[in-house]
Amino acid sequence: MFFTNLRRITKTGILNYKRNGWLSTATVLVMVLMLFVIGNLVFTGALASVILSSFESKVDISVYFLPDASENSIISIQKELEALPDVRDIHYISRDAALELFRNRHKGNQLIAAALEEIGENPLQASLNIRAKDPSRYAAISEFLLQKNYREVDKINYFENQQVIERMGAIFKTLRGSGTFLAFFLAFIAILVTFNTIRLAIYTMREEIGIMRLVGASKWFIRGPFIVSGILYGATSALITLMVFFPLIWLISPRLALLVPEFDIFQYFLNNLFMFAILMFGGGIIIGVLSSWIAIRRYLQV
């Protein structure tokens, strides 16, 4: 008996879904937009995490020394820093080595070569490039350098890099915040549209509902088809969203790889396809069922 009723409820729900053709299409489209934004939030979050991690892994602390700093004093500072537990390695670049690197980098640039000749002396500074075992420990190393206040040190460039990282983090945070707001806004619109679609379906079926009441049909037998319709709206939207994402990500993956080689978005999509599908179907069905439930609680008194 239970399965017979369930089959009838499902059949009626599918019939309601088909009966409201244009409204069903509009409902599904709004839900697709909502799920598409949610999906983009997932990929944006993953991409932001990879970019920030990659950038942080490439960041080091460059300590530049005054021109009159002796090599012995610089080596002494290097040994002191190497004793710190957070330091992985330190690369010393002398003034002469820095000049040689600068010339090699700008080889063929006659203007720079002429400028160096005009100056007549080495304008570059000796430096120590410090790499930490963990990017999160750069701040502690920088704090150590500040507390030591070596008189030979001219400047420490970590703070400039840190500002760039913080700005990038703030940009991604703003993007995620804007995307989240848009997702909630579209979710509200989706609930509103689905709510009105179910309300119209209830109005359209008012005579059939009246007959079911007369013959003693249970509350769930009457309400069930509208819940099924809500599930169908959500499931259809999720399926369409996945079908849109698959070719779209496949197309943008090679182009994105040129900008961020560390992140293969298509492989990420495939690796997380199951969880992504759960998110899409779960989000769509929850919105569909919630909208239907609100509508039948308000307009279907049984």
From TrEMBL:
Pfam families: FtsX (PF02687), FtsX_ECD (PF18075)
Organism: Candidatus Sungbacteria bacterium RIFCSPHIGHO2_01_FULL_50_25
GO biological process: cell division
UniProt cross-references to Gene3D superfamilies, sorted A to Z: 3.30.70.3040
Transmembrane annotation, as ranges: 21-52, 181-205, 226-253, 273-296
Family the entry assigns: Belongs to the ABC-4 integral membrane protein family. FtsX subfamily.
Topological type in the membrane: Multi-pass membrane protein
UniProt domain ABC3 transporter permease C-terminal: residue ranges: 181-300
Keywords tagged on the record: Cell cycle, Cell division, Cell membrane, Membrane, Transmembrane, Transmembrane helix
Domain FtsX extracellular as annotated: residue spans: 59-145
GO terms for cellular component: plasma membrane
Localization per record: Cell membrane
Matches recorded under PANTHER family: CELL DIVISION PROTEIN FTSX
Superkingdom assignment: Bacteria
This protein's name: Cell division protein FtsX
